[in-house]
Automatic annotation (TrEMBL):
Protein encoded by which gene: zwf
HAMAP family: G6PD
Record function comment: Catalyzes the oxidation of glucose 6-phosphate to 6-phosphogluconolactone.
The entry's keywords: Carbohydrate metabolism, Glucose metabolism, NADP, Oxidoreductase
Source species: Eilatimonas milleporae
Name of the protein in its database record: Glucose-6-phosphate 1-dehydrogenase
Residues given in the record as NADP(+) binding sites: 11-18, 45, 148
Amino acid sequence: MKISFDLVIFGGTGDLSRRKLLPALFAGVQAGHIAPNTRFFLTSRQARPLAADDDAAGWLAGVFRDNPPACDYSPACLARFAAMVRFVPLEPSGTGEDWAALAGTLDTDGERTLVHFLAVPPALFTDVCAGLGRHGLNGSRARLVLEKPLGHDLASARAINDDVARVFDEGQVFRIDHYLGKEAVQNLLALRFSNLLFEEVWNNHSIDHIQITIAEDHGVRGRGGFYEGTGALRDMVQNHLLQLLCLVAMEPPAQMDAAGIREEKLKVLKSLQPLDGTLIDTQVVRGQYGAGASGGEAVPAYAADLGLDGESPTETFVALKTHIENWRWAGVPFYLRTGKRLPARFAEIAIQFKCVPHAALPSWKCRVNPNRFIIRLQPEDHLALRMMIKDHASTDEGLREVELNLDVASRDDVPRLGPYLRLIMDAAKGDQRLFVHRAEVEHAWAWIDRIIAHWQSGGNALKPYAAGTWGPYEAHDLLKRDGRDWFADI
C-alpha cells in the first residue's frame, strides 16, 4: 500500500541523509511504497545548498553515485524523485524567517502526516523541537524521529527526553535504532512467536549461551570528532547491542503491538545483572586498536588515525559477559562484542544450544557439534540452523554439520524494505513497534553508566590490539575461562 506524507529531514544535506536516508527514500518511491505526491524537505544551514532550484536532480545524482540506492534508476526516475525534493535553508537555533517559511510550506491543517527526522547532533534536538513547537508543527498528525545517540549518559538522555516531551507527546516520538528495522530481526520475532518449535527450546534448559557481535573492519570514517570521547560502549553497546539482546531474551508479549513489545523489553533491561567493581574488571574488556593491516593495507593506530598528539583514552572495542536474572535465562551467559578495525564487517546473533547429553555411538563422541541458530544482520540478512546429520561420504557412522537455511528467497517483483525505509514508513503510519521508548533508553543508560564510572575511576585499563585482528587477547580469555570461543566463522 502506498503512503503519502511530508518528511522534513533536519540536516537533510548532511552525512546520514546522503548515505542512508535519501537512497532509502528513492528505493521506496521506485518500489511503489511511497506515493509520488509525498514531499521531502531537506534543511541545511547553508543559505542555499544548490546554485539553482532546478539543480536538485544533479545534486541527487552525485549523492547516489557515492551511495547507490538498492534499485536501478534512470535519468527519468531521478527527475521524478527530484521533483519531490525541496531544499530549505534553516538555522535550527534561529527564530527568524526561515522557520516561518518552512511552516508556511507545510500542510499543518490537512490530513497529511508530517514526519520530522532529526538527522542532526543531539545538541540541536532541543532547539529543533522548540522551533517546531513555536511554529505549530507539533500537531496531532506530526511525528518526531530522533536519530541516535540520545545523550552521552543517563542525565543527558533524561534532559533531552524532557525537552522533547515539552513539545511532543510520547506517542508522537520515534527513537530510531536502524538495527531493529532489519529483515532478519523481523524474522527473529516471527520465528520465535509463531512457531512452537522454537519457543519450547528458548530457555536455559536447552540453550548454553548467546553471542551478539557487531564487527566493523573500518576505522572512524570521518566521525573522529564525534567518536573521540564517545567510544564503543556508548556508540554501540548502549543502543544496538542491548536492543538486540532485549529482542532475543524478551518474553512473548500478550499483543505484538508497541506497548506489549516495550513492556517485555523493559523487563529484560530491569533483569540485567548489574555490573560494578570487580565484576566489571572480570566481565568487561575494553580495547583500542593499534597499527596493523586491514584489507591488505597498513593502517595507523587509532590516535594517529584521528591525527591526535599523544594517546587517547577512548575505547574502540568492547567485549562483555552478562546474565539476565530471571527464570528463563538463569545461568545462561550473554556475550556482547563490538569493535573497529576487526578482520571483517558483520553483525550476528548466535544462539548455541547445549550438547547432547550422551553420544550413542563411540564414533560420535568427538564429532557432535552443538546446534546453533544464526541470525545474521549484515552485510546480508541470513537465518540458519546448524545441525548434525550422517556424513554420506563416510564408510562408518560418521557425522557432519550442515546448515539448514531459513532464508526466504526474495521475489524480483517485491524488493525487501531496507531498515531506514521500513522505519520511516512505520513512523509515517504511527507504528511504534520497532522504535525505542524513553524508559528503555534511560534503563540502558543507567546500566552503562556504572561501567563508565568504574572506568573513569581508573578501573579496567585499555587493552591494545592490532588493527585487523579480533580484539585484545583478554576478550578471547573472557570466553576461554568458560570453556567457550567467539564465533568468527563468517
